Amino acid sequence: MRRFPLLLLAARIAAAQFPPGYVDPKPVLEAAAQAIGTARLRCVTVAGTGYSGAVGQQRESGVNIDWPRGDLTNYVRTMNWEAGTMKEEFDRKPGANPASWKYGLGWKGGTPPQRATHQFFAVNGKYGWHKDGGSEAVAALPEDAERWQLDLWLNPHGFLKAAAKPGANPKAVWRWELGESGRDGNTTIPEKVTVVSITMLGRYRVDATINKENMLQRLHTWVPDPVLGDMNVEHEFTNDSYIDLGDGMRFPTVWHSHQGWDDNFGAQAVTAGHNAFGGKLDRIRANDCPDALAVPPVVREAAFANEVTSRKLAEGIYLMGGASHNSVAVEFNDYVAVVEAPLDERRSLAVIEAVAKLFPNKPIRFLVNTHQHFDHIGGLRTYLHIGATIITHAKNWNFYNRDVLNYAPRTLEPDMVSLWPPTELAEGYQYETVRENYTLSDGTRHMHISYVQPLAHAEGMLMAWLPNEKMVIEADLFDAPAAGPATEANRALRRQVERLGLKPEWVVPIHGRETRWSDFLRMF
Ligand SMILES: [Zn+2]
Ligand SMILES: [Zn+2]
């Protein structure tokens, strides 16, 4: 029997803790925290100029098209990791809808247009709120507040502090990284990096890429999204963007963030939107920690209902309201068609239950989808689940088929389709795609669906027309009540109606109440 020296044996035992591919995260995290003085930085304020991308509000689909952008000026963000608070203030051109939108994570249609230039967003623990100019605080939805809280920790110091918390459970792997062709050009010499993953807020798996200079260069995680499922969120920082704040503390000045995969080339996903936030925030103050950011009582007490109120518009036609987005149920001889599956699965299940009560013996056979914006398609999968065929514009098919109505597991918030995937999903007969015109008819009831052209609000926009009831059903081309002056989207709706020679009495919007066509015309 050969005897190994004691030292070698000890080394083998230590190595055995980390199987091939893995390394000890502890020294990597310690070196990274040392490199930027994380132990000494309790809070930080960064200021400058940036932009935010309207995630899920793409105007066109296909490759090389990004989320629409809004400029943020006088941007100031204070992050206090000890208190668990973050405050952001900036100026943005008013008029955009909705006001409660930040970087896209919080984008919800149906909220009133932003009125004032100055915008305020804050999170304290699980509470988030927003102020439009001098307005009262408006509570953010709990899921948005949680993401703002997550955002507090999605920066180099936040990550390293979170990694030291109980339950973070760090794990590390190593890899050679060649870089990103768009960012780094034709690199040929790979760099060895370590990627450390931790658990944040008890459920988000966040990983950080730490390079050979011990600098944190990329943060990555997934957040649940009704449209995309586990949605990619990442922040990138370059070594040379870190500046010295004194006392060994350093902080990056250039922000570059993605929501959704960086899918410029459409290789795996086709959303073609990813840049969600960016800017030069190079006026930085360390450890000037502000007073406690108190949660306003109205925010603490806010309740979020999910009631469906149905109102009869005509025989067999119901507006399914009660939320920021309506759906419209239309009865045919043997089935029901629903126009729009907005928001998320929770909302769609509630609407489906209400429709099934109104028409107990008829299946929901068709779901008519007006356009591809995320707040209007969050329930498409729910209608697929209950067996409805989705009527949508042909331009949306590639995106829906690859990114939305797919088999991909949803780990953060599993939905009906991911838990009970129906067989049709593999066979592809869950769509009817429309190019110009499409008609549903049982000989008595008719619904004519047409492509709104030219492009207004979003590419691939459909509207529905009920000739017997003289009703137009549309989304985002007109939100009631009529306010005026007429917008580009309003003009597109009017042009479409006139082009088809329709004589409507009513316009039934997905946002707001049914409105007389004559009142709509008054805005012009
Ligand atoms: Zn909308
Ligand atoms: Zn829209």
Task: Describe the structure in your own words.
It is a single chain. α2 packs across α4 (156-163). The protein is globular. The protein contains 14 helices and 29 strands. β5 (118-124) and β6 (127-132) form a beta hairpin. It has 2 domains: 17-298, Clam (outer membrane lipoprotein receptor (LolB), chain A), CATH 2.50.20.10; 309-521, Ribonuclease Z/Hydroxyacylglutathione hydrolase-like (Metallo-beta-lactamase, Chain A, 4-Layer Sandwich). The protein starts with 5 loop residues before the first helix and ends with a helix. The chain has 524 residues and is α+β, with helices and mostly antiparallel strands. 20% of the residues lie in helices and 34% in strands. The chain has a 14-stranded antiparallel sheet with strand order 1-8-9-10-11-12-15-16-2-3-4-5-6-7. Strands 17-18-19-20-21-22-23 form a 7-stranded mixed sheet. The protein has a 6-stranded mixed sheet with strand order 24-25-26-27-28-29. The mean pLDDT is 91. The relative contact order is 0.11. The longest helix has 14 residues, at 345-358. One zinc ion is lined by residues 109, 375-376, 475-476, 511.
